[in-house]
Each structure stands twice: as C-alpha cells, then as structure tokens.
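Example with several molecule types.
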Amino acid sequence: MGSRGVTIAEIAEAAGVSVPTVSKVLNGRKGVSAATRRAVERLLDERGYERRGRPGPGSGLIDFVISSLDTQWATALLRGAQAEAARLGADLVVTTTQGRPVGTPDWVEHLAERGSDGVVLVVSELLDAGRAELERLHVPVVLVDPVGSGSQPFATVAATDWAGGRDATEHLIRLGHRRIGFITGPIEQVCHRDRLDGYQAAMRRFDLSADPDLVRHGNSLVDGGRRLGAELLDLAQPPTAIISGSDEQAYGVYQAARERGVRIPEDLSVVGFDDVELCQWISPQLTTVRQPLAAMAREATRMVIELSRGGVRPTPRLELATSVVTRASTAPPPGTRRPGGTARHETRSPA
Amino acid sequence: MGSRGVTIAEIAEAAGVSVPTVSKVLNGRKGVSAATRRAVERLLDERGYERRGRPGPGSGLIDFVISSLDTQWATALLRGAQAEAARLGADLVVTTTQGRPVGTPDWVEHLAERGSDGVVLVVSELLDAGRAELERLHVPVVLVDPVGSGSQPFATVAATDWAGGRDATEHLIRLGHRRIGFITGPIEQVCHRDRLDGYQAAMRRFDLSADPDLVRHGNSLVDGGRRLGAELLDLAQPPTAIISGSDEQAYGVYQAARERGVRIPEDLSVVGFDDVELCQWISPQLTTVRQPLAAMAREATRMVIELSRGGVRPTPRLELATSVVTRASTAPPPGTRRPGGTARHETRSPA
DNA sequence: CTGAAAGCGCTTACAG
DNA sequence: CTGAAAGCGCTTACAG
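Resulting structure tokens for the full complex:
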C-alpha cells in the first residue's frame, strides 16, 4: 500500500511545530493554542494522518444504519446489504437508531475510534448538523431512500417512487375506479411525497379531480393503516380503492374493511407498496408496487465499499424501477358490468 | 482496565529469551527454533498478550453468525441480538454462513485480525474442528439453538423443545385427535429430535401408538412443508392433525391441504413452531408453539458481552420456555360431536 | 503555550 | 538460532 503512512513528525514539520505539540492535538490535550490546534488539525486532515492505534480505513467494516429492524421492509434491505458486503469481503455492522437522530458528534466519534470503511444510511432522521459531522469522518456515506430535500453531500439510492404512485393509480383507473383514496406514511419523507405526486399526476391525466378528503397520511404500520383506512371508509362517499404507503399499512386497511363488512376486492380494491413477504401470506394476496429493496441496499453497499477502496465517485443519485405486482386485492369497482375492459397492465409473479 | 497490558518485554523475560525473539514469533518470522517458538506462544497465550496494532478485546464488536437471514425465525433472533448489543453499548457484526462450515481457520484468523469481543453462533453447521479453532480466539462464544449432541465447550441458549413438542401434541389430543402427524426440519438438529421425542412421549402417555408413517422430516421451509404435508395427506389413513417444525413449514401444509380441498381446521388441524409474524398474517391464523426467539438471542448476546467484560462463566446451558399459542388452525377432528369437552389448555395473545 | 529530553513498546538490520 | 544495538513513532513529564 505505497508509503507507510504519514507520521506525526511530518505533520509537525509541515506545521512548523514540534512533535509533542502534534501529539497533544491528536489526543485532545490542553496546552495548545486554538490557532496552532486548528492549523495542525487541518494538516492532519489534508495529509490523511492515520492514528496508529486506531484502525482507520481498512478495518473491513461497513456500517448499516437503519431506524429499526421491526418491519419486513427493513429486513429486506438488511438482507441485500448483508449479502453484498459478504460478497465483497466486508463485515457489516448493523445499528438501529430507534428514532434517535443520526450523525451526532458522539456517534461519529465512536465510528472514528472503532474504524469504519463506510456507512449505508437508511434513516429518516438525518440531521442537517449530522451531515457535517459525517463528512468529517472521511469515509464514504450513501443514503438509501433518503429524506429531506436540499442538496445532499452524499450519493443516494432510491426507488422510482413517483412512477410507483402513478402506476398504482393508473392500474386502478384502468380497472374502472374513479374515487381512489391515497394513504401514506409520514409526509415529510420524500418517498411518500413523491408517490403522492405520482398519484395526483395520474388522477389529473385522467381528468379525475383528486378529492383532498381522499388523501391521508400518518403512521405506515398496520395500526396507521387501520386508522387511516377507517377514516376513508367512514366518509359519506368512501373510495372504491385505496393505495397505501406500505404493505403493512395496507394490511391495516384490510382490518378496517373487515371490521365494516367491506369485502376485498369486491367492494374495495387495495394496493400496497414495497412487495414484502406479507403480500403473499395475507388473504386476498395483496396487489402492490414492488420496490427492489434488496437490490437498492445491495447497490448502496456496493457503492460504499467500492468508494472505500478508492473507486471513483458514482452517480450521485440512483433510482431503481418500481413495478406493479398484480395479485388478488384489486378488481373493478362494485357495480361494474364487465370486469374492466382494459387488461391489467402489468402482471408479475413474485420472485 | 487495570494494568496497561502485557508487554513483549515481560513475555521475553518470562520465556528467558530476548525481546526481538518474541517479536519474531509474534510476526511469524523465520529464525526461531520450534521449541522457543512454542514456549513463547504459550506464554503469549497465557498472559493474554494483546498485539498493539490489532484491536483485541475492547473492539466493542460482537459477531452474530447465522446460517441465513431469509426466514422470519432468523430475523426474530437478529432483532433480539441487535437490541441487546445496542443496550449494552456493543456493535453487532452480522455474518451469514450460507451453509458453509463455521470455525474454519481462515475465518477465525479474520476475526482475530479484525478484533471481536465475542461470538453469538446460531448455526447448524458447526464443525467439530471449528470448535477447537474458535477456542483459540480466546473470546466468549455462546451457541443459540445448538446442534449436535456431544459436550459443548461453549455455553448454549435454547428453547424447551421437548416440552414444546409434547405440549403441541397434548393440545391436539385434548381436542380429540388420535391420528397426529409430525413433520420436522432436518432431524440431525437436536431441536427437531427433541421435539419429536416430546411428541412421542405425549402419544405414549395417552396410549396412542405413534404410527411411524405419520412422522416425516426434511426441509423446514414452505416447500418442505408442502411436500411432507402432501405425503401425510395422501396416506391411505391420513392424520386429522399435523404438527410442523416451523411456521413456514406449516404454511406449506396449508398449501398441500388447499390443493386437496382439505379445510383447516374443519378437516385438518395444523400446529406450527416458532410463532413468527407469519402466523398472524395467514388464514386461518396459525396455532403454534411459541419460542421466545428474541429473548433467546438477547440472552445469548448478554452472556457474550458480559463474559467479554470479565463476567463470570454463566450457566452452561439455558433453556427458555415454549408455550402453545392457540389460534384458528386447530379444532376438534372431523366427526366430533361436541367441540372438544376440554378447554384449550393455554391461550396467549401474541405480544 | 511550547518544545528539548527521556522513555515506551516494538521492529529491523546485523554480528555472532 | 539468538540477541545487543540502533531506530521508529509516539507519549509523558517538565522546564521555560
């Protein structure tokens, strides 16, 4: 690996200070003027000084950070990341944030001390402050399904959420639906915002006014789906179809429907989002917008590892295609003569 | 953390050789007699010498090794391990073996180089050779749901599999079943063997001859359940109930039953094993033997971390209780007058 | 705040 | 095969 690494002596020489002074800066000791400290830190940074004790780049560890592992969405992503890390000979450290903000100085310092070759972040709580901290780590960071708009200093991997929202809506419109409800997870997250935009675009394109009453957002788990689904079903003019922000949330809609004696798909069509295993277990099997979750995580992990090995900067933003997987939860709306003159526009059997 | 760690000089002194000689042994250099090398290695070992470059104990990393992450069983275990590691301030490295043997010299050397504070092993393929290698690591190892009999040099955490098999069987017997089929995963694994023993004990206790034709084993995934379930349902005298080695396998039995027009639970009762999320998604909801998977992994992880921090040797074997969770897939056998005079003997709502 | 000096743990030639 | 000697990268205690 070329040179044996910069030494503290070289840094001292370059900074015009003594070796002990650099040592003090390195160890956060007192007794160094702010100006000197800053100058030395800059040099340390520039020359890529690697603390001998600390296993810097080359630890072989990639950090996979996700809000929680409690959903099938999360485990699908984890599987992809783990498989790719293994394939490329890296070890994957799995951390959950449990709602805590990401990129706190503590955590970044912990990563620096332990040694991390890169970070795959699947989190909604990335603080703006956290971004700056993370950049200080000097290891590649790739975001999966990132939140917040604003320019990212990091590369991102996502799905074509807008197209997914549009395709789900068109699938229902082609079946003959006109009153289509749309429920999503937290609307602050770009993926949900994008899908909603896709829905609205499809509705407009077919000259259907998107009744704002038919759009709800909240929790994307089963509970949220049950509550938001109930709200829609209890409207004076309920929708004949509901598109949901996740498969789990869609199952909550199933529950709300069952509680009201509404049959799926005879009285109500339901479309999920993600295509996790759940879709095939529940009855009727759930039509959904497939996100290639494992592939997204694989791609992000590959980017991080290749960058950590000196690869060139990849596409700053990668979007993998979604596709509608038609199963048994969607059908023409009640009262339709023929079962929707138009054929279902895409049928894919699950992998 | 007491002393600053053994130095090469101390080892040299103890071995009656010079510092450079110890250094050579440490770095695998030539020019050391076999006898000296051996003596030094032993001292290094005994005194717990920690190579400065290598982040030995204290890396804060715990390795979680599992055959694959593709089942809900696996992710339930992972969740428990991850949560406990986070709680105790350790980072969890997740590795899948994908059927490869565990404890190969390569892998052990990799762990040594990278630094690992301990290993939680959830694997069926632990080689006997691997055990010796793993012991050389000098970090705590705890097995979850271990395979093979023979005395383990490592602590183990498991569920009360024997009682689980017995309880599932008794539950069905109390409902009035007499012909009860039993299908399991690979019978080499002690957990499956133990459950089968529990089944046979219960059958004997109720003076029911366990027809060997009613016992099958193979793959514990959906496919396996479908195939093994089909074999039982196609018998001249098919069982009125089937106990399965996993919930996924039980779902395979659902498929086999559906393909033959056999209704669950009217014509056939089905009991699963594990109590993963799947049980609640499928229809009818699956009665199952609950294994506290997350708790098992938590316990194993806690043991490893505490041992790595100097805790005392824990119980060599820990078994957490299973319990029958009664849902909709079990009922009295067809042709029964009253719906089983005996009440279902345990009802637990899922967490 | 700063650095000359001593020291620590280890490695690298190299002489025997 | 073995180790005295020199050296390396860093830290520590202390004088200015």
